[in-house]
Amino acid sequence: CQGADIIKNDGIYSKYFTSFKGNGRYNLKVRVQGKDKTVRLGRRQSQALYVPGYIENGEIKMNAARPEVSDDEIQAKLGSFNRVASGGSFVVENVPSGGTTDVFPPCKIIDLEAQYEEDKIHLSWTAPGNDFDVGQADRYIMKMSESLLDLRNTFENATSVNTSSLVPNPAGTKESFQFKSENVTRENGTIIYFAIRAIDNASLTSEMSNIAQAALFLPPKESSPDSAPNDDVINKGISVLTIVLIVAGSIIAVSIAVSITVCI
């Protein structure tokens, strides 16, 4: 979800702090602990167009092959370490005396994915929290439409997907949900668009998620060997049989005529 840390595995880790207990000064410290593990480094891919070769004076000249990156180059052993950094201090004022009021909705889901699996549609995303990316949301609202613009502009009016059996997991957990695609046009190439919102226990609603799409591709039907022949096959068979009978009758007639002539 789109919390404080928007991009995964980029080496920058951020977090919202919403647990204010009352007025006063707060000190912030960040502690990072690493164990003896191997991590995979994210490397920025070059956006330049690779040209394998070119023509010069009518001859083909090949460029050097694109260098391949091995796993050894993008992996690093962390070892064991423990680091503490100070985030300074800040003052919180005007906190309500009766306790804090929930003013933080769940964060926006930005990694919704959808795909057809046989006769069902499978959806997956990262769970948001109760307050941004902290805690656990209360429920989801999921919508679907065959029109991208209708879903984006009028989310509430789109067709609802029954998510009553779906209980949100804690923030950061991978969610998975599938349902049978009823009331959907089942034609080859049909595209269905999906979007989702999360609601917390104070009825605060997140922004609409990214729009995911699922395309239906129906495999071609195979002809059955036991199926009845069509009219063309029947007509073709009749035509061949007619020719065979005419040829056989002609041979018999010639044989009779020869026999009579010999006898006379």
From TrEMBL:
Keywords: Membrane, Transmembrane, Transmembrane helix. InterPro entries: Ig-like_fold. The chain crosses the membrane at residues 238-263. This is Calcium-activated chloride channel regulator 4-like. It comes from Chelydra serpentina.
